[in-house]
């Protein structure tokens, strides 16, 4: 009275249908979007997607592209910081600067600071002002 060996194709088919049914239940109960890709032993793909495979994959790939673009911009950001340092050094007053020159320099630096804050805000990066030195932290949607 042992277990009989079952045909692998029938087992795979039943398991695949069960997996897709469970994915549909989880997706509908949680309101999430998902894609499930299953490969058979012959490497034939079977796909389930809610609301559709294309919409979920398009969204995922566009998010990956924007992440890759952000990573690629790191070098550009480093160059921008170098340019900013050159500008600050260029406009830096000498040791014997008068009050008017120092006020102009202060206004110039404050203008740059405001532009940087606007750029950080547009990128979703908030400045932690809990200390005199601000630390940037990226906002994450939960």
The coarse silhouette is rod-shaped
Total helix count?
A: 3
What kind of sheet is the major sheet? 2 strands, antiparallel
Q: What gap, in angstroms, lies between the N and C termini?
A: 53 Å
- The count of DSSP E runs of length 2 or more, i.e. the number of strands, is 4
Strand order of the largest sheet: 1-2
Radius of gyration: 28 Å
Residue share in β-strands: 5-15%
Regions with pLDDT < 50 over 5+ consecutive residues?
A: 130-142
Structural class: alpha+beta
Helix content: 55-70%
pLDDT averaged residue by residue: 72
Which characteristics define this entry?
RNA polymerase II cis-regulatory region sequence-specific DNA binding, two-stranded antiparallel ribbon, alpha+beta, SRF-like, DNA-binding, 61% helix, transcription, 142 residues, Agamous-like MADS-box protein AGL29, 3 helices
Give a concise summary.
It contains 3 helices and 4 strands. It is an alpha+beta fold and 142 residues long.
């Amino acid at each position: 009275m042992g277990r009989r060996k079952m045909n692998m194709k029938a087992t795979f088919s039943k398991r695949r249908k069960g997996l897709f049914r469970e994915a549909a239940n989880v997706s509908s109960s949680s309101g999430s979007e998902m894609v499930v890709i299953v490969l058979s032993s012959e490497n034939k793909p079977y796909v389930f997607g809610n609301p559709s495979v294309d919409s979920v994959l398009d969204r995922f790939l566009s998010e990956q592209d924007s992440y890759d673009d952000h990573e690629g911009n790191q070098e550009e950001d480093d160059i921008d910081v170098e340019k900013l340092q050159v500008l600050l050094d260029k406009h830096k007053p000498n040791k014997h600067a008068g009050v008017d020159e120092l006020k102009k320099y202060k206004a110039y630096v404050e203008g740059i600071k405001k532009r940087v804050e606007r750029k950080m805000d547009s990128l979703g990066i908030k400045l932690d002002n809990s200390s005199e030195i601000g630390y940037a932290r990226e906002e994450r949607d939960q």
